[in-house]
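Hello Y.,

Per our agreement to keep a running log of every chain we model this quarter, I'm adding this entry. I've kept the format consistent with earlier entries: sequence first, then predicted structure.
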Amino acid sequence: MIGLIFLSPKAIQKNIDLNDLTEIKDNIKGYDIEFKSERGFGNDRWDVYSFSLEEPLEYSHWEKIDKSYYSIRSYFYDNSSDDKWDMIIQNIYKLEKDTNTRYSYVDLDGTKKLYLYNPEKNKGYCVIITI
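Predicted structure for the entry above:
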């Protein structure tokens, strides 16, 4: 007997989205795509996810916000004139100011990810750039 499984476009998109958050996908309680850039040549993109987790993160690979963070951050955040982006960046800035917020930087084969997470608020963001 041959069985076929058909996935809805929404189910396929959800799986793709979770692949973007590979480093935390086993612990995700919920997530939203806050900003999705128009795709450029090839697979160029600039996307922002917000997320919450089932369990607080193990901080072994996460750093306190410091000068290194701000140096990395400058690569990810631009001065876009998009109103939606302005609102997202203001929320990220608020999270950065909390001393409990940590970050993780991932560089994989041309895709760079900057995670920011606060366990007390159970709120985080992931900014992804592929060039």
